[in-house]
Amino acid sequence: MARLLEFLHAVKLDSSLAAPVEILDHDSTSQDLGDVEVDIEQRAFGSRFAAARYLHERLSGTGLGNIDQDRGLWAWLSLLYFEELCPPDKKGKRTPGEDARWVPDSGRAFRYYRHLLAGPFRIFHTHRTNPEKAMILLCGPLHQPGDIVEQLASRQELVTNASLLATATALYLDEITTLPKKGATSYEKLNGRTRGKPGTVRRLVDVYKQFDLTWDLYAMDTNAVVALLPKEFDRFQ
Hints:
Layout: H1 2-11, H2 48-59, H3 71-80, H4 82-85, H5 118-126, H6 135-138, H7 147-153, H8 156-159, H9 162-172, E1 173-174, E2 179-180, E3 187-190, E4 193-196, H10 201-211, H11 222-228
Antiparallel strand pairs: 1-2, 3-4
Helix pairs in contact: 2-5, 9-11
């Protein structure tokens, strides 16, 4: 993990540096799984959902213990898929971002969502019976989680709420582009505080919490929940 982070810090200054893939199977920087066999191949995913589904299929039920909390495992996978997780821009520059995107932050329980692979994996696992309901958090490319992920996945009570995520997916996911609709995360500053503009994700969280005091939203069909929302949300329907 230290070697990976050393490379990531260096590649910010010199994007021509090659990823140190040799440490993936070197005795001094990797650990054999013993009797556990996991078949992971080098491939491109194209989206957070595809990566989460693939890794869930390959890792779940293999006998690996404590997958969610295995920092070494997720760091290893991050390096394996470095090219997709940190593609160069038009000028050839790579921007790895914060360390937590590559090595899960063990100091804060719910910062896992910032990891580019562990985040989608956990969301998929949490909603594995119907992961499409959480598509608003699993759409888009791996290297660009987006602000909706920041708003909803950073709090346990939100990221585990299947009804809320299904409502957010119904409102804000563009079925043609499979990306969030324009304006879904717009916000404004008022008296030094940040608040979502009408109909946006931040507003949905506030309105949903209010309605949850009166309605059994978990038991309701997603379309019925959407129908309850105030007119400010009409532009996203």
